[in-house]
Amino acid sequence: MSDVMERAETKQPTGEIPKTMQAVVCYVPGDYRLEEVEVPTPGPGEILCRVELVGICMSDVKVFHGAPSFWGDDTQPRYVKPPMIPGHEFVCHVVALGEGAGEAKNVKIGDRVISEQIVPCWDCRFCNRGQYWMCDKHDLYGFQSNVNGAFAQYMIFTKEGIVHQVPHEVPAEEAVLVEPLACSLHAADRAQVTPDDVVVVAGAGTLGLGIIGQIALSNPKKLIVLDMKPDREKFAMQMGADEVWNPAEVDVYQKIKDITEGYGCDIYVEATGHHAAVNQGIHMLRKLGRFVEFSVFGSEVTLDWSIISDRKELDILGSHLGPYTYPRAIDFVATRKLDMRGVVTHTYPMSRFHEALEVMEKGDQSMKVAIDPHN
């Protein structure tokens, strides 16, 4: 179905665990197949989960189309390891526990859970310093065959995974947004917003909305959102934006000068994944401004680095995943401190995953697209 299905309070799954399940398997770019595969068996420390709902991320779309940042090229190695089951935005129920998993992860059968997207090795330089989100091995659910994702009816949380519980009363269409929201909170934290700042967030997609919401809670002097899709304005305002501008309709450079005495914005957060938004931000920032890059791009982005150094002396910060932000994201969703109702606009059965990917990519009258593996 092409709209969001109505759900009552989430119920724990019942019945026997089947021997096989349906799953979407990625082989090469463009070659994704709905197959009948074995339900995995949890080993020591592992958790078998029944997938309740899984969201589609734009990175899933870029993997589908063969983006070099995932599949590699002459300048970078391949990151994905097919054949694999995609899907890293999920909410699940625990249905089986490997030896010691219940004690190690503080979970029991029937618990509603998520696992952070990254599966750290816990043995590299970064993991040993508490910087687990930059783990050198860097396995992510849904991108490698040893950590298959949630485009399936069941999935394994590995013994290295970081597991969090999600309240049963949170609707599935909101619970599935915890992972992207956790990433957004980290990006907003990186921006280091103060009440004196004029902030511009480029992109009011699902990830951009989380950034807008967290920045709004920091009470900036002004929070401007840029997006070229008119239907996203209501979501941006719902999250706390002061104004939403469409770069296709107004001169955003002049407008930002008009409200900053000609200087430019203090902070610019890029969350569109489009090349033009990077150069746009570099030019909109004032001297000594701060640029936060959050997107994953399908191809290399070029810009005039002399603007960063010689002309403006800008601070350029990256943002990756959602380290240490999942408890906050779960609380924000559960209490609706950030109201995520309506953000999931489309839910599809797994048999129509190709259509779901297309709707997510086009973004016309859609925000977050999800797949219900059991529908």
TrEMBL record:
The keyword Hydrolase does not apply. GO terms for molecular function: metal ion binding; oxidoreductase activity. Keywords: Metal-binding, Oxidoreductase, Zinc. Pfam families: ADH_N (PF08240), ADH_zinc_N (PF00107). InterPro entries: ADH-like_C, ADH-like_N, ER, GroES-like_sf, NAD(P)-bd_dom_sf, Zn_alcohol_dh. The keyword Oxidoreductase applies. Gene3D superfamilies: Medium-chain alcohol dehydrogenases, catalytic domain, NAD(P)-binding Rossmann-like Domain. Residues 30-371 form the Enoyl reductase (ER) domain. PANTHER family: L-THREONINE 3-DEHYDROGENASE. This is Iditol 2-dehydrogenase. The lineage of its organism: Bacteria, Pseudomonadati, Pseudomonadota, Gammaproteobacteria, Salinisphaerales.
